[in-house]
Structure formats: structure tokens, C-alpha cells
Amino acid sequence: MGNFSGLDRIIEKYSDQPGKLIPVLHEVQEEIGYLSLAVQQYLAERLKLPLSKIYGVVSFYSFFNTEPRGQHIIGVCMGTACYVKGAGKILEKLKSELAIEMGQTSADQRFTLTITRCLGTCSMAPVLMIDDQLYGTVRTTEVAGILNRY
Amino acid sequence: MKLYFNGHAYDVKAENTILQAAAEVEVKIPTLCYSPHLSISGACRLCLVEDETTGKLLAACSTPISPGMRLQTESQRVVAARREILDLLLSDHPLDCLTCEANGDCQLQDLAYQYDITESSFGNKKERRFELSDENPFIQFDPDKCIICGKCIRADQEVQSSAAIDFVERGFQIRVGTPFEQGLGSDLSSCVFCGLCVEYCPSGALIYKPALGKGRSYQFTRVQTTCPYCGVGCQLELQVKDNQVIQVGSVFQPGSPNPRGETCVKGRFAYDYINHPDRLTTPLIKKGGEFIAADWEEALNLVANRLLEIKNRDGSTAIAGLSSAKCTNEENYLMQKFIRAVIGNNNIDHCARLCHASTVAGLARAFGSGAMTNSIAEVEQSDVILIIGSNPTENHPVIASKIKRAVKKGTKLIVADPRRIELAQMADLKIQQRPGTDVALINGMIHLIIKEGLYDQEFISERTENFAAVQAMVNDYSPETAAKITGVPAERIRAAARLYAKAQRGAIYFAMGITQHHTGTDNVLSLANLAMLTGNIGREGTGVNPLRGQNNVQGACDMGALPNVYPGYQPVDRDENRQKFAQAWNTSLSTEVGLTVVEMFNAVDQQIKAMYIMGENPMLSDPDQHHISTALQKLDFLVVQDIFLTATAQFADVVFPAVSFAEKNGSFTNTERRIQLVNQAIQPPGQARADWEIIAALARKMGYPMYYTSPAEIMNEIASLTPIYGGIQFERLLGAGIQWPCRDKNCTGTKYLHQGRFTRGRGKFHPVTYLPPAEEADQEYPFIMMTGRMLYHFHTGTMTRRSRVIDHYEAQAYVEINKKDARKLGIDHQDRVRVISRRGEVETYARVGERVKTGQLFMPFHYAESPANRLTNSVLDPVAKIPELKVTAVKIERIC
Fold first, then answer.
1. Are A52 and B169 in contact (CB < 8 Å)?
2. Are residues B382 and B531 in the same domain?
3. Residue ranges of the alpha helices (H) in B315-456?
4. Taking all residues of chain A, what is their mean pLDDT, rounded to a whole number?
5. Min CA distance, B260 vs chain A (Å)?
């Protein structure tokens, strides 16, 4: 188990608060980026909670990550309009370009591939977002070019 | 309180939920996620009932009743709602009842039947959504059959207290899972395979893997009996088909040691040995060094003649018997009767000598009775628990679960053990004393309690004697002095003393870590001092509680399978006792106290010429194996009666095939003095016979009329001669059994001892000074080795190592070593190592970690191929004659 005594400050801050697990997880993720197995084991011991409980909560909320996130987060919209307009193919293309599966981070740590719900720009379907930048009417042939901008 | 179900008025207990009220008046309401043993979840909504007044549908499990409520339990609306729920559940459930293991034992199937649903109107589940979770040999989980009721999770968390599983993910992906999907039994998993989740599962999602394909619930005959492993005495249900135990189910019975269906991996899964091909099926006679199958007549005649011959030649004291803590009360009673009445001496003992002889001796001196003072269920009533020299998680797992429940509810826990045992993780105070320094530790605590005036003066003056002697003695044991001896910081000794002394209901639990020392009796007396000093005895939730390690070790002691007492601890050297038994048994009896286990083997050269060993395996269980094997070889005649050809039986001249617990009737007495029935579930293999039948047949061959038609009849004789069992009859033991003392037919038993008055009158303080262990680490043997048990195996392994799934899962012998020592010696985890003591050497595998401190080793003694007891020291406690199995000086080296 790694040394996570740096997290004790967060744990202590919530020491008296009932239902403290979720705020603690939030701050810990903010602090170190993701909630690895080692981090969850450390929290289990310090918070005197079973690891199964912590993992259950972490897996419930999509906000929490158990793996490191890339520098840039790609969100492929899988809303109805985008789906119909071929978002699936875009996603496949991204997977093969980055050689990762959905939810994973590329080997060079540059991109994490996720899917999002409707972004409200159905007229531009299919769309994807990289960080705060929206890309509309994306074609599979454009995917590599878009990635090259980062 | 008055209310109405379906138009009928009922009077029910107030402060109930609707579901509880309905159960009280036998109005049926279906449920899926509810269990009376678990917290309320209210998730499944099957228990919806209609409130006539408001028109609302209420969840019966979680809605409290109110006066005059008018409820409909099967109205049109209720039925429609239930059908809708079932329809939804079935839309995500494979309709594969034809091949499902749970067919016939599935609440979902029963409800579909009741509400006439053949398939889901939302479409049926055709494709798997999840993978089968199947990575361990015990339990299979099919998330596609799971209805997400969460009962398994609550059973795991609230009853078993393991918290190995929980819901993971959400929405359609939600399932019962393990951290990081690593499965039960992974390094991350806290699962101990107790199987409770399977018992609580209402569908076929969780099943027992070893029973796969071997039959359906409705094909089983079911027999309730008592577990054959540790002293907790869990009630189990053997589920039998074609004379085979197919699986072991839970028994939910109030008053039992395991009322919520608890058991451990051994009780649940270690039953293959019963139908194992190695079972002895005929008597064996050794001819020319080989065992030859014989018939009973020949074998019994041979044994009878040889024993009579030796008795006539060398005198009756040349013969000794070992009785068995695995056998029933009735069999132990007959065995000691055989030695006393037929052979004519008191050379009868059994393995309690090696585990709790010092408890029996120590507590009898201090209190007048050597048994566990309180009851298992009282664990949850203590506000402070001191566990010393006991590792319940592995040795008494069901009690460990109760301790964990108690701690979760606020009980403070002190764990004192040289090893960092699992319970230490949740302890408020962790103490790791050096092996063999318990007296110093406890005296240090007593010193502090007296000094700070935390003792119970009223209790001491009214209930005890000889306090002044202890008061004077502990002057020498300041916490600082105790710290020097024990290696425990003085401040922690103080904290432990204060915590225990200030308890309203403080309880002490202990086991072999206290007893298996040459100072074992002293250790026990110290604990008795501590309890009396603080008045923590004679009340609920308090006491000095030895945890007994064998299913019937308490009973074997109670039955007088001891060289100094008749049944019920009536000393053999007291004339009135001898006369009473001589008259009842119609013979004359010896006044001379007999030999103990270790003394018998020491006397083989001189006095002892023949031994009759029933269900014991001293080759693996007794200290100094080389000494034992030499003695067994030297005997003129050895009879062994067992279910397998054990390491000990190899030395026998005649072997009698006995039957397992599943093949006979009788009773076991558990650690809390509870006498419980053992019921026959299957027929014995071949010509094997119950031990009581064999002993009686042999006695008759030797000219003593020993006739019984059943164990129940033997119990009647026991009751007539044993005051503490005076009121015991088999008919009275149906259900949860009875705790002795039970002196007459009107007595319902005794939950805790020494209420108002100690058995011996006043409790007696004994000043006990610290003596170092017989062996200490030195330059040549720099490590102190402790022996003990681990969760998956039991005692000498004859049963668990023949249980396929258990031995598959945990096959290798090992020695635990601290990682710092391992690094110094160049030993890696799983390396082959040699452990050497002054008496022998053993090869085994290293388990490197931090459970033992530096300078210490721990080795379980279950493994015939790596017998820990080849190394141990047979030096004895002078009073109890228990050997010092917990402290052996050894060295360890890597095998290149």
C-alpha cells in the first residue's frame, strides 16, 4: 500500500460528519486525480469502512474514476440524434486511433475516452467534445485530424 | 393492539411492523428481500398491502402498525401490484428453471407459481448480461439470476460481519460485487466462505459449487445435527441424497449458538471426508507387519484376549485408554466406564489435556467449576471484551462474527496476542505481548487497577477470599516492570487495565494462547484474579470464558474421560464417589488417580504395555512426535478405533472402523456447556460401527455385561450418576438443547455460572508470579515458534484434508515469519524452508508478512507432511500436565 498520509488532512476535516464518505472521495479525487485501489484501501482503513462499501460507492457514481485520466477528456455524444447519425462509428474510430476501449486512457496519457449524454446540439450531430471544445458533424475521416490538434 | 387483516379483527403486539403483526397471526404476506434476522431494506415491494382507509399501498416490512388499521393482503390492487413487480423481475431473469440448481428451492419461482406468471410481458431474458462469477471452489454467483434484493449483502455485513460484498455500479449494470471485481477469495477479499449469502439468497443466483448437478432441494432428506468441528456447536442441516451428504444448509433456531444460520467454511464445506474412499470399512488386524481385513468377531476376540492377557500378566494399570473429544458424550462415558470398570484403573484421558487442562484446573481452583462461565449469545451484551491468547476468527469463527457485531454496536475491544490476529484490526487496544509472558501482563493490569482504586471492593469482600495475598504479590508488577517482561508499552497496559476495570459488563475470552504453557494453570488463575478483582463474573455479559476447540471436548471432560474424576467432575479419590460408581457399575474401582496423556506415553517403557485409542491422533496432536512414535512402537498391544487409518493407527495391532458424526446418534456438549443432539443422517460404510457399540461389544467379550440399545439409554445412565447432567434426557434436547448444570427434570439449564455464589462458595484469589517459558530463544535457536490452527483446516487434518474443496483451496503447510527476519535470512514468500528445534526438523513453506513479530514464528499443526509437533516441547504444567505447545525455540533456514 502506498503512502497517502497526505490525505489525512481531508479525512480529519470530515471526521465528525456522518455520511462523510462521498465528500471525502470527492476531495481526494480532486487532490490526486483518481481513486486507485491503493487509495481506496487507505481510505477504508482510515475511515474504518469496508473496502466493498467504498468500491460500491465509487462504482455507483460515474464522477469517480479508478484509473488515471488523460490530459484531455474526449466525450462522444451518444444521444439519440448523434447515435442515428453514426456516433457509434466515430467512437469506433476513436478507439482504434487511440488503441483503447471506452473509459480508458491512452498509453501516452493524453486522452481519456468517454461517452456523454445529449449535449443539446443535435443539429450538428454527430458531435464530440474534447475538454471544452465542441466538434460538430464529425466524419470518421476527420477524427485523426482532430486528435492531432492536441 | 387491534387491527384488521382482510376484514378479520386481530389482537397483536404493539410496536410491530405490519409484516411482523401478520406473521404473529399467521396471515401470509410474500417477501423477497425480507429476513427477520436482517435489517429492513424495503427494496422488493413484494410485501405491499392495501390500507383500506387511505387506499394506499404500504410496504408491510417497513410500515409500523397503528391502532384499528384495516389492511387487505390479497386485494385486487395488491395482487396487480405484485404481479407487476414479478413481471419486471422476470423480464431480467433467465427462465431456465429446468436446469437451475435452485429449482424447487426458489422464492421467485414460488411467487411466479402463486401469481400465475409463465413469462414476462416485457419480453424474456435471452442473452447473458453478466459473466458468471466462479473463480473460487466454494460459491458460484450468477448475476443474471440475481434479483438485487441485497439479502446476501446484509447477511454478509450484519450477521457474518465480513463485508466482502456490496452493490457495485447502478442502473442496469448494478450487481452484487467485490472490490475491483477481483472475486471472492482474492487477496482483496474479506470473504471467508461461510456460505451464509447462499443460504439467504431467494433465487438461484448464489449456489454451492460442490453440490452442482448433484440433486435438487426436493430430492434431499434433511437432518438437523451438531457440527463436528470446533466447540461453538453450530446447528447444521445435512442435506442428503443416495446416502451422501450433498450440501450443508443453515438451521435458523432461536437459542442455538448460531440462531441466524451462521457457520464457518468447515461446517459448510468440509464434509467430503464422510463419504471418502479412505474410510475404514472393516476391522483390520496387523499380521506380519501388514493390515489384513478381518471380521468383527475375530477382531473383538483378539483384542479382548490380548487385553485380558496383559491385564493378568502386568496388572490392570498396564493398560491405558485415550477417549475422544470428537466422539459423543455417550461414547466418552462408555470409554471411561470401560477403562474404569472393565480394565480396572483410571488411566483414561483425552486431548483436552493438550488444550484446556489448565483451564479446568485453574478455574476449578478459583471458582469451583472449570467451564466457560457465560454463554455465546452474551458476547453482544458485554461493553468491554478482552480477548487474550485466542484467535476466534480462525478457531471459533461464529463467535468472532458475534464479537464483530458487538464492536460495531459500541462494545470496546482489547486484543492481547503475540500475533497480529484479524480481530486486532478493529480493536480499541492492541497488545502484542511476548509469547509466554501473560502472567506479567495481567499482573501489571491488576497492579494498576488496585493502585487507582478501580477494583470492586464490595464484590471482593462479599464473594471472594485471599485477596490480600494477590494485593501484596502485585506490588512487584508495576506497569513498567510488566512492560519490560512483555514488551508491551506501560501506557498501553495502563489503558487496557482502565478500560477493562471500568466496564459495566467486562468479559474475558481466551484459548490456547493462555493454556498451552508450562504456566498454563497460572495464566488461567491470573485471568480469574482479574475478573474477580473487578466483579466481572456471575452476571450476564461478563465472565472468564475459555473457548473450547473441539466439538465435544467439553462433553468428554464432563463425562469423566479424565484420570482424576468420574463423570461430572466427581474426584475418583473420594470414597463416596467411588462407592457410588462401583455400585452403579457393579464392580470394584481403583482409588488411584490415573495417568494423563503425556504421562502415559512417558510410561510406555515401564508401566504401560497396551493402549486403546479412540478417535485421537497423538502422532500429530501431541508434542515431540519422535517421542510419541517411539512409545507407540514399544507398546505390546495397541488398539485404535477411528474412521481413517491415521498416522497413529498405522502403529496399531488392531484397528476398529468407527462411524462419523453423520452416521450416528448421540449428543455433543459445546463450549458454553450446551448439550445438543447429534442425529444420524446416513448409513455407515461397510461394517463400520458407532464407537459406543464397539466399546460395549468389547466389554461383553471381556466378560463385563455392557448392554445398551441406544445412546438415549446411555444418557439416562449418565444423568442418574452425574448431578450436573441430572435433568438431561434426549427428548428434552430437541431444539436448542440444554446448558448444564441441569440438575433435574424441571431445570431448564444454566445460562451463566456463579450467579450470587461461586460453585466453590467464595471465589479464591491465587497470587501468581511470573515464570519465563521453559525454552527461550538463544544463539543457536533464535526464534520462538508458536503453533495453532488456521481457518480452513482442523486439528490433525484427518477430516478437512479429505474434504476436496477445502484442501484444494488451502493445500500447503506453512510457517509465518516476519518480513524483516525473512529479508535477513534471504527467505521469500512461498520459499521452501526448514524449521529446526532441539527435537527435530520440519520442511514447509514460508509465509512472509507482519502477522508475527520479529523473532517469532507461527506454524499450524494440521499437516502430516510438515508436522509442527515434531518440534514442540513436552515440558508440562506441573498442575494440569498440559505441555508447552506455544513456546518452542527454533531456527529457520531456506532450503536451496
1. no
2. yes
3. 329-337, 352-355, 357-366, 392-395, 397-408, 438-451
4. 89
5. 22
Segment B636-665, tens digit of pLDDT:
999 999 999 999 999 999 999 999 999 999
Q: Confirm whether A65 is domain-assigned.
A: no
Residues B491 and B607 in one domain: no
Pairing mode of beta strands B244-250, B284-287: unpaired
Question: In terms of residues, how long is chain B?
Answer: 896
User: Which residues of A are less than 8 Å from B166 in CB distance?
Assistant: 50, 52-53, 55-56
Among B31, B53, B74, identify where a domain stops: B74
Query: Does one domain contain both B512 and B561?
Result: no
Facing residue for A52 by CB, picked from B170, B179, B426: B179
Residue closest to B200 by CA, chosen among B136, B131, B154: B154
Q: Which domain holds residue A55?
A: 5-60
Which residues in B lie closer than 8 A to residue A66 (C-beta atoms)? 180
- Residues from chain B contacting residue A60 (CB–CB below 8 Å): 167-170
Chain B residues closer than 8 Å to A41 by CB? 188
- Judge whether B717 lies within some domain: yes
Q: Please report residues of B whose CB lies closer than 8 A to that of A54.
A: 179
Residue in this structure with the C-alpha cell 485520466, named with its chain if needed: A69
Residues 420-479 of chain B whose Cβ lies under 8 A from any Cβ of chain A:
426
Residues of chain B with pLDDT > 70, as a percent, come to 100
pLDDT of A2 reads 58
Under a CB-based contact definition with an 8 Å cutoff, are residues B520 and B771 in contact?
no
Question: What's the rounded Cα separation, in Å, for the pair B315 and B471?
Answer: 50
- H helices present in B367-429, as ranges: 392-395, 397-408
How much is the CA Rg of chain B, to the nearest whole Å?
Answer: 29
Is the torsion defined by CA of B275, B277, B278, B283 positive or negative? positive
**Is residue B752 assigned to a domain?**
no
Tens-place pLDDT, residues A91-119: 999 999 999 998 888 988 899 998 888 88
The boundaries of the domain holding residue B53 are 2-74
Structural domain contains residue A67: no
Across-strand partners of B669? Answer: B675
pLDDT over threshold 70, residue B458:
yes
- Inspect the interface and report whether the beta carbons of A50 and B166 lie closer than 8 Å: yes
Condensed to tens digits (0 to 9), the pLDDT of residues B377-400 reads 999 999 999 999 999 999 999 999
Minimal Cα–Cα distance from A59 to chain B, Å? 5
Q: What gap in Å lies between CA B539 and CA B134, rounded to an integer? A: 47
What domain count does chain B have? 5
- Of the residues A59, A62, A63, the best mutation for testing chain B's interface (the one with the most B CB atoms within 10 Å of its CB) is A59
- A interface toward B at CB cutoff 8 Å? 37, 40-41, 48, 50-56, 59-60, 66
Q: How many CB pairs under 8 A join A and B?
A: 45
pLDDT higher than threshold 90 for residue B321: yes
Residue A40's closest chain B neighbor by CA?
A: B179
Would you call B850 an interface residue with chain A, using a CB distance cutoff of 8 Å? no
Q: Is the pLDDT of residue A1 over 60?
A: no
Q: Out of A37, A48, A56, whose CB is closest to B168? A: A56
What pLDDT is attached to residue B502? Answer: 96
In this structure, the answer to whether residues B325 and B260 fall within a common structural domain is: no
> What confidence tier does B365 reach under pLDDT thresholds 50, 70, 90?
very high
B225 and B367 share a domain?
A: no
Q: What is the pTM of this model?
A: 0.91
Name the one residue in this structure whose C-alpha cell is 490530459.
A71
Look at B180 and A37 and tell me if their CB atoms are within 8 Å: yes
Give the Cα separation of B139 and B89 in Å (integer). 23
* B247 pLDDT more than 80: yes
Interchain CB distance below 8 Å, B190 and A40: no
Same domain (yes/no): B477, B570? no
Angle at B330 between CA B326 and CA B334, to 5 degrees: 100
> pLDDT tens digits, residue range B492-524?
999 999 999 999 999 999 999 999 999 999 999
Which residue did the predictor score with more confidence, B861 or B505? Answer: B505
Domain check: are B725 and B790 in the same one?
Answer: no
* B155 and B254 both lie in a single domain: yes
Which residues in chain A are contacts of B426 at CB distance < 8 A? 48
Cβ of B163 within 8 Å of Cβ of A50? The answer is yes
